[in-house]
Automatic annotation (TrEMBL):
GO terms for biological process: proteolysis. Keywords: Disulfide bond, Hydrolase, Protease, Serine protease, Signal. The keyword Lyase does not apply. InterPro entries: Peptidase_S1, Peptidase_S1_PA, Peptidase_S1_PA_chymotrypsin, Trypsin_dom. Belongs to the peptidase S1 family. CLIP subfamily. The keyword rRNA processing does not apply. Pfam families: Trypsin. SUPFAM superfamilies: Trypsin-like serine proteases. Residues 1-20 form the signal peptide. This is Peptidase S1 domain-containing protein. The lineage of its organism: Eukaryota, Metazoa, Ecdysozoa, Arthropoda, Hexapoda.
Length: 285
């Protein structure tokens, strides 16, 4: 029994030193607990339904993924800026991050793809969550053969304006077991004025953001799913930014709208520089 306790304590110390700031990034979300499920009340995804979804995590034990992401091409992933910054708004070192992809059940012992560089949107505002996106360049390519792997493919962009009531889906994992299962919830587009009128948002929803999800209690997204994708008509329309009520009433998810950022996202594909970890990639607030 004593050896078990010591082992648990050792893992706790490793985790506290290596990744405490990753979990701190969402502590301002009311009701946040680090080990909440990624998706609350979701439906299990099937093979090939959301093949571009990945988990972004740490290489060190205990290997828990702490954010979501979306594969854009053979060596780039889109996620939220807040996933790759410390609470002091400095960049997490790229070699501390990695990707789990191509699976409906997260196997934390599976091979991972490393990250070579992290590109944060230069106008990201950590207080309003405007421009809350980042592109990760992987250290090796995603392999998508001629006959695609059912759960590994690149996302297509949704470039139109989402309309009120449009049926969309947000994807993540239920973290209630040792092998989390990929799930999705239906998240209809919510009118911006309605979303801004909710006490949790208080008029902070900008034009570049979109709210999705019901205002009544039910299935919802949780803090550990920041950076995952909102899909409308099967294409990537948004990246989860805030509004992480885990199914609470009047707390729909808020997403960065992809259509506003397509030029910037595409510019990152040709970059070969490596921003220095520990520095701030955004203006000092």
């Amino acid at each position: 029994m004593r050896s078990i306790v010591l082992t648990v304590l050792a893992f706790a110390l490793i985790f506290a030193n290596a990744s405490a700031h990753q979990y701190a990034l969402a502590e301002e979300e009311e009701g946040y607990e680090p080990f909440q499920p990624f998706i609350s009340g979701g439906t299990n995804a099937v093979n090939g339904q959301f093949p571009s979804i990945v988990a972004v995590g740490l290489p060190a034990p205990p290997n828990n993924a702490f954010c979501g992401g979306v594969i854009l091409n053979e060596n780039h992933v889109l996620t939220a800026a807040r996933c790759v910054l410390t609470p002091q708004h400095t960049l997490i070192f790229a070699n501390q991050l990695n990707i789990l992809s191509g699976m409906l059940q997260l196997n934390f012992g599976a091979p991972r793809i490393g990250i070579a560089a992290v590109y944060v949107h230069p106008q990201y505002n950590p207080f309003t969550f405007e421009n809350n996106i980042a592109v990760l360049r992987t250290s090796s390519n995603f392999f998508v053969p001629i006959v695609p792997v059912p759960n590994l493919d690149f996302a297509l962009f949704y470039e139109e304006i989402p309309f009120d009531g449009q049926a969309c889906q947000v994807v993540g994992w239920n973290n209630g077991t040792a092998t989390p299962v990929q799930q999705f919830i239906n998240a209809p587009i919510l009118n911006r004025d309605t979303c801004n009128g909710l006490a949790v948002h208080l008029g902070n929803i900008r034009e570049s953001m979109v709210c999705a999800g019901a205002t009544n209690a039910g299935p919802g997204v949780c803090a550990s799913n920041i950076g995952t994708g909102l899909f409308c008509d099967g294409r990537l329309a948004g990246i989860l930014s805030t509004g992480l009520g885990c199914g609470q009433a009047n707390n729909p998810g808020v997403y960065a709208q992809i259509r506003f950022y397509l030029p910037w996202i595409r510019e990152q594909f040709s970059r070969q520089d490596i921003p220095l970890g520990g520095t701030s990639p955004i203006p000092v607030m």
